[in-house]
Amino acid sequence: MEQQKILIVGAGISGIAIAKHFIDRGHSITLIDSGINRSSIIAAGMINPIVFRRMTKSWRVDEFLPYLESFYTQFEKECNASFFIPITIRRMFSTEQERSLWVEKQGDSFFKDYLEALTESDDKFDAAFNQFGSGRVKKSSYISASIFLESTKKWISQNQTLIKDTVDYNEIDPVLSTYKNNFYNHIIFCEGVEVRDNPWFQNMPINPTLGETLTITSDRIIENESLNRKCFILPIGNQQFKVGSTYVWDTYNSDITVAGKAEIEKNITYLTDSPYTVIDQHAGIRPTTLDRRPLIGTHPSFSNIHIFNGLGAKGYMLAPLLAKEMVEHILDGKLLDKEISISRLIK
């Protein structure tokens, strides 16, 4: 295929994943980003194959996990950076019923790749409050968001074009497919909640969801596992931990709050009474959807205008494979999964 010119708006995990796939296929990328990241930079980057609330597998996890591991490890080599970090997630059961449900599912072939069989040491685990026992999740990991974004943007700027600027929608001509009079075969919006100002996709049902996290330091909390009950405590090195997260729906205010800090600190007490010090607090707005499925596809009136959005709290798990599917949709005409396609919303 002849080399195409692609303009991507937004350099969070969505925009970078899209850019990487186009670059790998030999196309020319211009990535424009305001530098104001409301979601990807503050995300914990947790990759958890299990939804604890319903004790079931995460959506399409059997496809996402092997692909993301290959994607991130290869990207690490190209960026000469380390941001993909495997870690065991330990779920501290909150009831005997939750423990029984884990036991019931641990031997099921549908779950065996993700749930470790409970052992006596899991029941006696004493590095967190353990009234009902605990279970370990297999194939879990996290992405160090700050390292990922810094190193991948640097890699893109060395190989393609990265512009730090706020996109001017008035300078986009969807008929001529130009931005500031420069032609692009395709323009892809990966803006997160900023899509509310986008004249082509502002009616997409993005639900802005505030999430807050704390960074704490403690010499008593274990560093080899991520603890989970009511919140997560994720070790990030040097006796520091990221803890979260909160959910406040339908808000564009990304300021940190006293209430958010108090909620997280209360939830920590369900896991440990180890002393700690809060050294930082972050807040960001996740682009979530009511049906918990991304918003991906092509504008119904302009075949060169596209959206890749709504990945929500699981963005680092979903983005690699969904970006591949999006690029194949644009370049090869492959149909998108009906669950993610914006065609499900367009009458």
Molecular structure report:
The radius of gyration is 21 Å and the shape is globular. The chain has helices at 13-24, 61-79, 96-106, 120-124, 145-159, 258-268, 315-332; strands at residues 5-9, 28-33, 46-47, 50-51, 56-57, 84-86, 88-92, 134-137, 141-143, 161-164, 172-173, 178-179, 182-183, 186-189, 206-217, 225-229, 231-237, 240-244, 248-249, 277-289, 295-298, 305-309. Among the domains are: 5-44 and 146-205 and 291-344, 3-Layer(bba) Sandwich (FAD/NAD(P)-binding domain), CATH 3.50.50; 207-289, 2-Layer Sandwich (D-Amino Acid Oxidase, Chain A, domain 2). It has 347 residues and is α+β, with helices and mostly antiparallel strands. The two termini are 33 Å apart. Helix 1 runs parallel beside helix 5, helix 1 crosses helix 7 and helix 2 packs across helix 7.
Using the coordinates shown, work out and report the CATH topology of the domain at 5-44 and 146-205 and 291-344. FAD/NAD(P)-binding domain
Helix/sheet category: alpha+beta
CATH architecture of the domain at 5-44 and 146-205 and 291-344: 3-Layer(bba) Sandwich
Overall number of strands? 22
Taken from the alpha-carbon principal axes, the silhouette is: globular
Q: What number is the mean pLDDT?
A: 95
Order of helices and strands: EHEEEEHEEHHEEHEEEEEEEEEEHEEEH
Q: What's the number of helices?
A: 7
CATH superfamily assignment of the domain at 5-44 and 146-205 and 291-344? FAD/NAD(P)-binding domain
Oligomer: single chain
Strand content: 25-35%
Share in helix: 25-40%
The main pleated sheet reads as:
8 strands, mixed
Low-confidence stretches: none
**What is the terminal-to-terminal distance?**
33 Å
